[in-house]
Amino acid sequence: MNEKQEEKELSDLPFRNQDLDIEQRVNDLLNRLTLKEKFKLLAGRHRWETKPIDRLGIPPFLMTDGPHGVAPHSSGGKECTYFPVGICRAASWNPELSFQFGKAIAEEVRDVGSHMILGPGVNIDRTPLCGRTFEYQTEDPYLNKKLAVPVIKGVQGERIAACIKHYICNNQEKNRYTYSAEVSQRALEEIYFPAYKAAVEEADVWSVMGSYNKINGVYGCAHKRLLKDVLMDKWGFRGFVVSDWNATHLIDNPEECIKAGLSLEMPRAKHYKRRYLKEAYSQGKFTEEELDEDVRRLLRVMCLVGIFDDPKTLPRGSRNTKEHQNLARKIAEQGIVLLKNEDNVLPIEMGQVQKIAIKGTNADRELAEGGGSSAVKPPYEITPFKGIQKKGGNKIEIIDDVSEADFVFLILGLDHEEHNDVENSDRESLELPKDQLDLIDEVSKTNENIVVVLINGSPIKMESWINKVKAIIEAWYPGQEGGHVIADIIFGDINPSGKLPLTFPKQLADSPAHITDKRYPGNEKVFYDEDIFVGYRYFDKEGIKPLFPFGFGLSFTSFKYENIQLDKTEFSGDETLTVSLDLENIGEREGAEIVQLYIQEIEPKIKRPEKELRGFERVFLNPKQKNKIQFEITKDALSYYDENLKSWTVDAGKYKVLIGSSSRDIRLESNFNYKE
Ligand code: BGC
Asked: Is 419 left (phi over 0), alpha (psi -120 to 50) or beta?
């Protein structure tokens, strides 16, 4: 047969038939594979892809790093849009924006020729020191899932696979290859699972990445209970599990991974070497059914992304488009958080200032290409300095002498060097670097109009300097358009509206993971003894005042909350309770408020957080505009995981609904009863 005939013959095979049901296609393909070929498919090559099987025309399945832009190291060095990092996007509390982001990043993945993005990253921010806090979203499980689901839907709508990571309890980078998260079932259910569960149940995520660490003594990629029993059987995951890169190395043998449901060992075979698999198989250590199940999942995702389909029928890719750049800018506009604004110094009226000074390590620093696997190589990056300079044009002079300046902008924060916001190491303190503290000190001696702009991805301690500065803008790593947005906020073209997706503690010792060394950094074991009291749940319980609470962020306008109404005072079973309120913009500027709904059980039978986020809405209002906001509550919002019953449950009793502008700024409340 010549090449043409061969191609023709291959293209006639049922698994290539786009009109057939996907399971039929998968089964057809699976049945054509020899044992050897199945083994071959289970491990990667060249760091970012699976091995092709030419006989059947199976091409490599290509993966690329994310989560906030397609990474150069896994896309042949290509330039791609650098979106704001995960925590910045999360601070927008905007699911629709997360959807658009997912769609855009998938278009870039398609354009570089890949099939899967290694993101979103959704590990809970358990400690403010975690080196990857910037990549993740939040300390709160509800916000986490509400933002993860639309990202995945956006990505997969383009027929690109999303790979949610890192399953599970990879909440620190220190000792990440070896530690065991000693965590209760309740904390798993209430805090750590929700984003993954929703990713499966609500977004049909096509891939999950197994973490490096152990969970209660078993490695993530060999965790039969958490992978097979929970993820697959209980939640109904139909995609495939891929190992984090080299995460299988300390696992004892291949059969553990096969039986747990690990379909793909990356970046290359260690346990899934053909000869090891052959040996284990011939010794009966796993069955062909077990093997088939793992292979089937990978083949299914290959079909889902259209690897065997006519490329003309697939969504089109695009990269670095104006649209993506505008989206990067929009995410920063909504995700940057104004933390302090004494005497309403911001926004600065153009024309009222002549001279400004811009200082600080991060003033003109490009940071896209750092951080580890999340690095991006953008076509350009607008630094804060460039953004402010451009905006000031010839109306504002940038001078060197801080004592002569009308305003001094100190652009501070962290970077992606070791022990900062970076993979594979954690921060060692909450403080800004010493030279930055000295700079604030020095500048404050001659100028009182200091505006600090923070470029960083995790909480900063501010006690020693917060009173020396007038305003603080938490800009995170705001992506390639970030500098423009910072300038827009400073000069009032954008009214800041982001809210913190995690607590900023006053000091590390206030943080629940830092009560003892057993909790953090731990050793071989890291004890999650704070249990469900992660983030604000702990600060509330202990009555500790944080530096800035979960859900906090200032605006240039103010909002009035009034007229809370519940459509009933008692509800039961599967009924819905409707909560409404009026929100009015009572300031002079248009702006967005993020209205937060928390639930409290008034006399709980078991220990429960004082309040838990169960709803939120980003509302944009013009000056004097008033809108009715409505939330629907079902019993799910009241439920908790009962370790005795081994299931989620709701207790009949009294509850409170709390409506706040932050978790510590509750504006309205009302009680209701739940009856079984
Ligand atoms: C990281 C993953 C990443 C992978 C591939 C690992 O070290 O933990 O998040 O996707 O490398 O770069």
From this structure: left
* Position 482 pLDDT exceeds 80: yes
CA angle 212, 216, 218 (to 5 degrees): 50
The answer to whether the Cα torsion of 233, 235, 240, 245 is positive or negative is: negative
Residue type, 570: E
CA angle, residues 214, 141, 130, in degrees to nearest 5:
50
Taken as a whole, the chain contains a residue count of: 676
Does the C-beta of 135 come closer than 6 Å to ligand 1? no
Catalytic residue among 65, 111, 140, 244: 244
Maximum Cα–Cα distance across the chain: 84
Average per-residue pLDDT in the chain?
Answer: 97
The separation between CA 82 and the C-alpha centre of its own chain, rounded to angstroms, equals: 15
The two structure tokens encoding residue 625 = 């505009």
Q: Is 244 in the pocket of ligand 1 (CB under 6 A)?
A: yes
> 322-542 — its CATH code?
3.40.50.1700
- The finding on whether 65 has its CB within 6 A of some atom of ligand 1 is yes
Instruction: Tally helices (H) and strands (E) across the chain.
Output: 17, 28
Is the separation of the CB atoms in 424 and 379 below 8 Å?
no
Q: What is the pLDDT of residue 1?
A: 62
The answer on pLDDT for 403 being more than 90 is yes
Query: DSSP letters of 114-181?
Result: -SEEE--B-----STT-TTTTTS--S-HHHHHHHHHHHHHHHHTTT-EEEEEEETT---STTTTT-EE
531 is catalytic: no
Quick check: helix, strand or coil at residue 286?
coil
pLDDT of 2 reads: 73
- Angle 601-605-611 (CA atoms, 0-180°, nearest 5)? 25
- The pair phi, psi for residue 514, each rounded to 5°, is -115, 25
Instruction: Look at ligand 1, atom 7, and give the residue with the nearest C-alpha.
Output: 245
Rounded Cα gap, residues 442 and 402, in angstroms: 10
Mean pLDDT for the stretch of residues 73-96: 98
The finding on whether 300 has its CB within 6 A of some atom of ligand 1 is no
Return the structure tokens found at 482.
């970030």
Mean per-residue pLDDT, 514-534: 98
Say if CB 482 and CB 524 are below 8 A apart.
no
Name which residue sits closest to atom 8 of ligand 1, judged by CA. 244
254 C-alpha to ligand 1 centroid (Å): 21
**DSSP run (H or E) holding 490:** helix 482-490
> What is the Cα–Cα distance from 121 to 135, expressed in whole angstroms?
6
State the residue for tokens 């670095």: 320
Candidate CATH numbers 3.40.50.720, 2.60.40.10, 3.30.470.20, 1.10.10.10; the one for domain 559-675? 2.60.40.10
What's residue 395's pLDDT?
95
Residue 98: φ, ψ to 5°: -65, -35
pLDDT at 251 > cutoff 80: yes
Any ligand 1 atom below 6 A from CB of 165: yes
The pLDDT of residue 10:
83
Q: Where are the domains of the chain?
A: 322-542, 559-675
| Ligand 1 centroid to residue 247 C-alpha, Å | 9
Confirm if 217 and 225 have CB atoms less than 8 A apart. Answer: no
- Rounded CA-CA distance 472/597 in Å is 26
Query: Vertex 663, ends 661 and 665: CA angle to 5°?
Result: 50
Query: Is residue 373 a contact partner of residue 86, using CB atoms and an 8 Å limit?
Result: no
